[in-house]
Specification:
Two copies of one chain form a homodimer. Chain A is α/β, with parallel strands linked by helices. Chain A folds into two domains: 101 residues, Urease, subunit C, domain 1, CATH 2.30.40.10; 289 residues, Alpha-Beta Barrel (TIM Barrel). In chain A, 38% of the residues lie in helices and 23% in strands. Chain A has 15 helices and 17 strands. In chain A, α2 crosses α3 and α12 crosses α14. The longest helix of chain A has 17 residues. The radius of gyration of chain A is 21 Å and the shape is globular. The mean pLDDT of chain A is 97. The interface between A and B is large, with 73 and 74 residues.
Chain lengths: 424, 424
């Protein structure tokens, strides 16, 4: 199987951040040529902007089913009266359809890789493999019974999950201890130990709200990051979602260890967490900084173009400095930064890289005139502009049509799941 | 000419904010029926979400040509090194093509009415009439020579402009003294007097930046709002763009007079103005509060769906309160609030209103499941979801295709204008 992207404007995201005019050739799962290509291919796409697919580093895929179910509510009330009661009713079939809907929304918006964290993770991983989404599948570890199993079953089930998926092409199994306020020290240690044994990532929430920080401080005499560190869960493979309330010292700790921060500006703003993930300080410390949407219940989209714009603007406004976070820095967060942290050969358009590639149609009123392509991608583009999405060399969205799922059937099942879950 | 919107989900934005299932009938420029319609129409559109078109109450239409030309720069440097040098080169043909591009971007994003403020306003008004956009065309008054004429010619030219357009169906001529820092007291008085004589609106910038407030305070011993008031420019027909740095007392003054505040959250954040238009206080005082994108040079889109989301989220985050500004309040700002202030029979789907109506396709992954339609419109929808746009009863965007402009020709002329203006 080969794909030729012909006469393209290529945003390479290579080390020199070149934007060139030319062709990209994809053979099986690999980008084999970037330049001028003369040979034929099974699929040819002409005259597009070509760039690496966006990487959504923190989300809860099946929560698309709860999009708009509770808005404009204080965080605690939102969880207690809306999210938790519905989550208790979740069955495998809901997870399957919610994840499929998430996949569709993500690829239609140019996302090719998602770092998930939820219950029924084996089901989620299976859907991702079937529809063709690259996924860091985070198996949630938490000190409560989940909709799927009893709390004491979680650690062994997670281990089984890792062994099942550890050699998959698209799915990377991840250990996801939920947070320091919902996991005891012992649970953190067991989760961290397992991640170490299997040499995989740890994905956790860290300092999302001020309340959380003080709660953990009161309980353990240490802030969330120190608590993770103490119990072996802060490593060069740790993915820290949010970090809206971390200190400058914690910025240095994170950078020193080589852990990764995932900024979720839209969710933080919508839930009114008040914190500001300290991007300028994280950049100065050369920390790994990436982007996520969080779940659709608190965003309410999985749109990484939108998230890029929010990420740039929230810090400009907060610091009274329009230059504090640039378009290029934000595009890097959504592509090369994530790829580099994960050690995955994606995130740029270079020969030998895995083909996670998206195409945009630049002939659109919101992307003209072409003064500055990177600016347009961060400040002006939207999912509307994405025409084609290739993940691991496979076309999953072609001419704005889903290739691997039956759109109408999914929508029907989504509404059915909604009725089952909310009785409305 | 008649249009039937059949089997629709109708977000009426009437006084009881009903969302109903049914049909909408449009005859010539008027919504003649809402309910169950049995007769035929020239155009029939089925199975859409139908809602009033969005009203963008502050923008600079031709500045689409400068989208992405200067980003990530401090405001002063941005104006001095990027915007002003290019604006000097503006000719009528650039204004014409920039305004046409703006129209296309706006209707593709569901906007049916724009309040503009720029130079060459007669050209802008002409384009709006030709393409079919409802427009409050603000003739800029400023104490500098403009790219179009000498400063002393502005007031008489504005008067001529008002007389020419005052009875147009689509274009409402508006007097637009730029601001209290760029207009002398005498200029403000002459502009305000003219607006009063012709019983039309005054559109001005007010307290966008902290610097502006202190500049005016230093020069005149009064803040911008007091300065407007003193010189007759604060009336029940005054549109105040930004108001990011107004006081609680100024909130009361604005509400008392019945002037209208236009919140431009995206532009404020991108230019790092630091201020927060005090929406909760303005709502409490029952002030007219509306929304705008500002120009594409500082946004960088004219997307009112995006602006609605930013408007809701910036205040939640700033006040640490997810309930402080609701989706319904924001949707009202973009529709009925603007219509009510202007005294225009638009902004809702009701019999007898002018037909400024948009259709969205709800069969989209970002708008499912349908828990809460208003939430989806503010937090999840994007221009991608808009399929049809009717302005003053005329179809200007049908099945995602522009009816009144030649898309390819516009794009070609846009790139040519870009080259002429920037030499690149």
């Amino acid at each position: 199987m080969s794909i030729l992207l012909k006469d393209a404007t290529i945003v390479r995201q290579n080390s020199t951040r070149d934007i060139v005019h030319g062709d990209v050739y994809i053979e099986d799962d690999i980008i084999t040529e970037v330049g001028t290509v003369h040979h034929e291919a099974d699929i040819v796409i002409k005259d597009r902007l070509v760039m690496p697919g966006l990487m959504n580093m923190h989300t809860h895929l099946p929560m698309t089913l709860l999009r708009g179910y509770g808005d404009d509510l204080p965080l605690e009330e939102w969880l207690r009266t809306r999210i938790w009661p519905v989550e208790k009713k979740l069955k495998e079939r809901h997870i399957r359809i919610g994840t499929t809907l998430a996949f569709m929304e993500m690829v239609a918006g140019g996302t090719t890789c998602a770092a998930d964290m939820y219950f029924f993770e084996d089901v989620i991983a299976g859907v991702c493999r079937d529809v063709g989404m690259r996924c860091l599948a985070g198996f949630s570890i938490i000190d409560f019974d989940t909709p799927e199993m009893k709390r004491e079953e979680l650690i062994p089930a997670c281990e089984k999950f890792i062994r099942k998926w550890q050699n998959d092409d698209l799915v990377i199994p991840v250990v996801a201890p939920h947070s320091t306020y919902s996991c005891s020290p012992e649970t953190l240690e067991r989760a961290a130990g397992m991640a170490k044994r299997y040499n995989t990532y740890i994905h956790t929430h860290c300092s999302e709200t001020r309340h959380e920080v003080y709660d953990v401080l009161n309980r353990y005499g240490e802030r969330p990051l120190a608590q993770l560190k103490k119990h072996g869960a802060l490593t060069e493979k740790t993915m820290l979602a949010h970090c809206g309330w971390i200190t400058k010292e914690e910025v240095r700790d994170i950078a020193g260890v080589g852990a990764c921060v995932i900024h979720n500006p839209v969710s933080n703003m919508k839930l009114a967490t008040g914190g500001y993930t300290p991007l300028p300080e994280l950049f100065d410390a050369h920390a790994s900084v990436t982007l996520g949407t969080d779940g659709a219940a608190s965003n309410n989209t999985l749109d990484m173009f939108e998230t890029m714009k929010f990420a740039a603007l929230i810090h400009k406004h907060h610091r009274w400095d329009a230059s504090i976070v640039t378009a290029q820095q934000v595009l890097d967060m959504a592509t090369v930064n994530a790829a580099r942290f994960l050690g995955l050969p994606v995130g740029s358009i270079e020969e030998g890289k895995k083909a996670d590639v998206i195409c945009l149609d630049l002939h659109a009123p919101n992307l003209l005139p072409k003064h500055n392509i990177v600016s347009h991608l961060v400040y002006a583009a939207s999912g509307y502009n994405v025409t084609d999405v290739i993940i691991n060399g496979k076309m999953v969205y072609h001419n704005r049509t889903f290739v691997t799922v039956d759109e109408d059937q999914v929508y029907e099942e989504v509404e059915k799941a909604k009725e089952e879950l909310t009785g409305m």
